[in-house]
Write a structure and sequence with these properties.
Blueprint (H helix, E strand, L loop, with lengths): L1 E7 L5 H17 L5 E8 L9 E8 L5 E7 L2 H22 L4
Parallel strand pairs: 1-2
Antiparallel strand pairs: 2-3, 3-4
Helix pairs in contact: 1-2
């Protein structure tokens, strides 16, 4: 399990990385064909109080790379939504994979 973190206009946080690793652990154990995850954290000025903290995750797996992004008022909610979206994409990818 290899995870790379990139921060844009955000201070690096050990607790944020730990939370992300816990969420991604389920993906790495359930879908063993996932090789690597690139996690992006950034902030954006928005007119809504419900958005602005953005988490994007790109997964390296056989076939095209998978990507999901979510924007919430805190990073933990954004991470959770992003991981849920990636899980849906991985389920579809696994169904299409052929077993020989």
């Amino acid at each position: 399990m290899k995870i790379n973190y990139e921060y844009n206009d955000v201070t690096a946080s050990e607790s944020l990385e730990t939370f992300t690793e816990q969420k991604l652990e389920s993906i790495f154990t359930r879908f063993d064909f996932v090789i690597r995850a690139d996690v992006f954290f950034k902030t954006e000025n928005t007119s809504s109080d419900q958005t602005g903290m953005i988490c994007g995750i790109r997964l390296s797996a056989p076939g095209p790379r998978l990507f999901a992004e979510a924007s919430h008022d805190n990073f933990r909610d954004a991470i959770s939504e992003t991981v849920n979206e990636l899980t849906k994409q991985l389920k579809k990818r696994k169904e299409k994979m052929k077993t020989y």
